[in-house]
Amino acid sequence: MSKSLFTSLAKVAALALLFASLGAPALAQPINVLIFGDSLTSGFDLPEAQGFPAQLKRRLLADGYNVVVWNGSNAGDTSADGYARINQALQYNPDLVLVEFGANDMLDHTDPRVTYRYLDAIIRICKARGARVILAGMLSLPKNGPNYIVGFNNIYPTLAHSNRVPPYTFMLAGVYGHPALMQSDNEHPNALGAAVMAAGIAPLIEANLRSIRVASPTRRRAPLLSRR
């Protein structure tokens, strides 16, 4: 083999390796999904494997999505608490954030205008950091009275419209009010309830994952933080 031919073949091989190395991360890089909310999505009082984040991750993986699901939810948090720790939560470098707050605001009878402002700020910060946002809705208990119910329940569709983010009408849809799906406190989902929640919201999350994958096929590397 002549020296020139050997040199040409070596260059072709080097280019092939270069293109392969450039293409591989796009296939291997997972999409980061952050669950950011309160006890309804934290896996409260459940083994980690049975909580909502873990069950959602299994559902998404089974449906063929390459994801890392981060549990950024904290039991007892109000929308104000979420706002206070949003920058810490965004250290997970999420591509998609499921924002789920409001249940504790409602139980505390917080002015809906206050809840609105904090949720609006959380959404705007997430979007400014380049993440897509899904807003999980909450509904007021009847005992709060008609004026509060209207003001509170309108928070979520109004926010979704003004911020142009997809809403999920009620995080506990198909679960709340069903004793077989709730813990003994009648406030939090049990393991089966968490599975129903994951199945209910999965189609909306997957639609957004497809949009992320199409818009930016090269995923950002997950940060070096311990996974919950």
Automatic annotation (TrEMBL):
Pfam families: Lipase_GDSL_2
CDD domains on file: Lysophospholipase_L1_like
Keywords: Signal
SGNH hydrolase-type esterase domain sequence ranges: 35-195
Keyword Ion transport on entry: no
Record-level Gene Ontology MF annotations: phosphatidylcholine lysophospholipase activity
Protein name (record): Arylesterase
